[in-house]
Design a protein that fits this description.
CATH superfamily: Sortase
CATH topology: Sortase, Chain: A
Distance between the termini: 39 Å
Largest sheet: 8 strands, mixed, barrel
Number of helices: 1
CATH class: Mainly Beta
């Protein structure tokens, strides 16, 4: 478990929202994967990645997401709701299930105005997991989120970046947006067991581009 104490909590579903940095901590002592946990740094500086053309899709009202499909990764994974523990750390998907992702259910729902947060393992002790290869997902790749209101929100990746855990830029990742955006998070970089596992976070930035019946 992380030895760092939270400095901020992830934003809840309210406007205006506060933002927080998400670090990555071991899911279990023997696991070969790191997952979002307690914040690692104060809000970072710097501008957000270039976002490309503005969204042409109108934001949606809140609705529970149930599945995420990423054709570029050949992933179709169910989504489970994640919340904070009593120390303010974001919960993680079950590390025993390689094909599982989680969304922060107290924040923005995918397709609604603001930044929705979805996290998954990059690998587990039994092999690659849902977000394996996220670091290589190119701009233009699409992500479909199936929602409980029987609509599919399609997002387009406009940047994929890697940040060291010790210098995670929370403002850059979680800064408020007027349109509907999505952040996909997992771990990456060098794996150093003695230093606590993976040393970086991978973040894919995406924007809502279309909605269709599901």
């Amino acid at each position: 478990m992380s030895t760092r104490l939270p400095r901020e909590r992830p934003p809840r579903r309210s406007f205006p929202r506060r933002t927080a940095a998400a670090g990555l901590v071991p899911a279990a002592a023997a696991a070969l994967v790191l997952l979002p946990g307690s914040p690692l740094a104060e809000p970072g500086t710097g501008t957000a990645p270039r976002s490309g053309p503005a969204s042409t899709a109108a934001p949606l009202p809140a609705a529970r997401p149930v599945r995420i499909d990423i054709p570029g990764l050949r992933v179709s994974a169910p989504l489970v709701g994640l919340t904070l523990d009593d120390r303010g750390r974001l919960g993680v998907p079950d590390p025993a299930d390689r094909n599982l992702a989680g969304w922060y259910r107290d924040g923005v729902t995918p397709g609604s105005p603001g930044n929705a947060i979805v996290v998954a393992h990059v690998d587990t002790p039994t092999g690659p997991a849902a977000f394996a290869g996220l670091d290589a997902l190119p701009p233009g790749a699409t992500v479909d989120v199936r929602r409980a209101d029987r609509r599919i929100a399609t997002f387009r990746i406009y940047a994929t970046e890697e940040y060291e855990k010790s210098d995670f830029p929370s403002t850059r990742v979680y800064g408020p947006t007027k349109d509907a955006q999505l952040r996909l998070l997992t771990c990456g970089g060098a794996y150093d067991r003695g230093a606590g596992g993976y040393q970086s976070n991978v973040v894919a930035f995406a924007r809502l581009v279309s909605v269709r019946p599901g």
